[in-house]
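User: Run a structure prediction on this.
Assistant: Running it now.
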Amino acid sequence: MAEISAHETVSGQLPAAKPAAWRLGPGRANAVPIILFLLIGFAAPLLAVIGYSFMPPRTFGLWQTPTLENYVSVFTGTSYISFLWSLGLGAATVLLLAVICYPVAYGLARVFGRWSTLLTLLFTIPLFVSENVRIYGWILFFIKNGVLLGTFKAWFGVEPESWLFTQGIIVLGMVYVYLPFMLFPMTLGVSMVPKETRDAAFDLGATRWQVFKEVDLPLSMPGIVIGFLLSFVLAVGAIAEAKVLGGQKVIPITHDIEIAFTYSQNWPLGSALAVLLMLVVGALVLLVLRRFDLDTILGRR
């Protein structure tokens, strides 16, 4: 009170209090650096790409008259074929990964016991090797007179046709590269199923199939959904598998984006393709998430 009275004596009025909206608590103050980092490192590049997508073709500045010419050229050209290839290869990869990874995830969570840590380590080791190195390893495996075809020729006197540069080998490479991104969320989802719930279902007379359909699958769905979304987003954006294993017989949309930004020097067109890819993938992801309870998937309840 003495301080206020002294201030009143000098200035003749009370000090103005800060508005509540401008008061930062400890939590908000600590979050400011992270927010700035996200704005500069994530939002700013995306906004730049969106801005470039409305610039005239083959210009390198944002201070031009906006136009929709780049988007028109995407739909009037052949880029939609690349979109279909990317979505198709991504969907095929996700389906194969689901069939392959769920039994392995179930084994890691419930069957292998003390060996599960070692098996998890074996699945993790490839992540420490460059993706391009691993893909070129498949080239040596499937190339004519390579490891596989050369072995067939030496042992059986038969030289099969090379499997390289086909759609099947592209999907095989994508399944191999993105398998950990489907496996680990699935393993987490399977491990979330309480053993007591499964035992109670068996005690009530449920068969193994009924327990899987009514208990294991629904309760492990959060991990399955996360694995689906993560592997699909990565597979749609894949480029090395199509370029190396496919021999560019299949052109994904990411290859068109790379060509637009590099060889063609058409940044606005590349930006338009990138924006459309983000919109298509984002719409598909949101469509899937709408069918599930996000609070349950994120463990909030």
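The chain is about 70% helix and 0% strand.
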